[in-house]
Amino acid sequence: MIGVFGGTFDPIHNGHLRTALDVQEALGIRRVHFVPLREAVHRDQPGTSAELRCALVQAAVAGQPGFVMDSRELHRSGPSWSVHTLASFRLEHPDEPLAFIMGGDAFNGFLEWHRPHEILELAHLVVMQRPDATPPGDALGDLLDRHLTREAADLHAAPSGRIFLQPVTQLDISASDIRERLAVGRSARFIVPDRVFTIIDHLGLYQAD
C-alpha cells in the first residue's frame, strides 16, 4: 500500500512526521509520499515558494525508511486538487491500494472538496485522529455508513473506497505557530527536524522584514 500525504508544509514539522509514522506503522504502508502543494485550495496560499518547501520536505524525510518527498505538484499549474494528484498516483499504481492521509479537520469538510466521491474511487481515506478527537460531523454520516472500516486488512484487500480512522500521537504543533515564532525572533529548534531547522536558520526564512 502506498500512502499519499499532501499539504502546504510551510514549513514541515515534527507533528507531520510523527503522525505519518504512526499511520505507516499501524497500517503497514510501504511508502509514504509527502506531496507539497503548489497552489492551496482549502486555505491561504503559502508564503514560501513550492521549490523551497519541497527542499524542506526533502531535508525532513532524508534517512527515514519509507518516507519520500514527491514533487509532482511542482510541475503542474493551477490549483492542487487532490483528485488530480490521486489520479496521477493511480496511473502509476493501477492495482495497488492507495491511502490518502488527511487530518480530522480536513475530513470534516471533505464533502465540500472538489469531486470528493471520485477521490474515494481512487484511494482509501485514512483520517488521522488525536486521542481527544470528536467524532466526524453529521454531514459525513451517510458517507461513513457506506465506507467506514475498522479493519486495516480491508485497506490492503482493495485498491480504494474505504475510510479508516487512525489514532495518532498528539503533538500540539502547527506551521502557523512556527511562522509566528520565527517572525518575532524565537527559535523553531526541536519543533522541526534538525535539517529543516538548519535550512530555515541559514536562509532566515519566516523572519519579519
How do you describe this structure in short?
With 209 residues, the protein is of the alpha/beta class.
Question: What does this entry look like structurally?
Answer:
The protein has helices at residues 14-27, 50-61, 82-92, 104-108, 116-122, 141-147, 152-157, 175-183, 194-203, and strands at residues 2-7, 31-36, 67-69, 98-103, 124-129, 163-167. It has 209 residues and is α/β, with parallel strands linked by helices. A 6-stranded parallel beta sheet has the order 3-2-1-4-5-6, with helices on both faces. It is globular and about 50 Å long. The model has no long low-confidence stretch (mean pLDDT 92).
Number of strands: 6
Q: Beta fraction of the residues?
A: 15-25%
Q: Which stretches are poorly predicted, pLDDT < 50 over at least 5 residues?
A: none
What is the tally of helical segments? 9
Strand order of the largest sheet: 3-2-1-4-5-6
| Structural class by SSE content | alpha/beta
Quaternary organization: single chain
N-to-C terminal Cα separation, in Å? Answer: 44 Å
Assign a percent range to the helix content.
Answer: 25-40%
Cα radius of gyration in angstroms: 17 Å
